[in-house]
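User: Could you check the structure of this?
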Amino acid sequence: MLIFASLNDLTSVLSKLDSAYEAYNTNYENQYPGYTADQLDAKDAQTGFDNLKTYKDFELLFPSYTSKRSVIYSTESTWITNNFTGTDPDDIDYFFDNGENAIFSNAYKLKVGNALYEMKVDGLYINGVLYTPGDTSPTTSCSDCCTNRRIVEFYQPPTDNTKKYKLKKSIYSIPWIGSVRAKIVSYKSGSGRKRVRSNLSLTLNAQVYGFSCQLGNSISIEKLNKKRRELKVINTAGPLSYYKTYKNETYSINVMNGTTEYLYLTW
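Assistant: Sure, the predicted structure tokens are below.
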């Protein structure tokens, strides 16, 4: 597993990973400004372009290291091959984030100093204790205003049977960030199933609170008109912050090749 000297070091690595990914993909796409999403897919096949290369390069810096990201990606490949059946990769993906999954081991563990961090379905455990900083109802006992919640919708556009999309929403409270995020992943369905580029736009609207669920803040962020296989938007509150939300107060507007679908975070 990876060991970080401090939370600041960890957040610095995550920031650099996100920046490297965005720069690498944007620089490549800017070489073909008039291409459609399908034409870019064809060009990817010709050039061998890998949109996840920056994460893989980071992982290769550590001999014998296996990241959770690589495990999730392998599980997804099998799931796609089996006509989207079998183990769903989102059943083992607790972040919906390539950067965070890259720094966690295949057992979903890392260290900060001498502290062992382990991600589980109900949140992050530090030395075996669920991280709750003063919150008495962070996860399973929470019914109203909650953190550590996620939702996934496998969406088939009614007017296009050639593509399917995973729509994802989550809110988490972990020591390096309180975060709320949304994500779209695009797939070709039918023969030749795989991840493919689509014209994607994503808007995240959220009402977030501290652990007392008072004095909420409204958030709205977006990424528009990207020809990508996946698209993510995220809002973070910084180290040692805490995010909660009420049912249906956090939602995403997902636009896929002109089709719009709303996804509300509920439980």
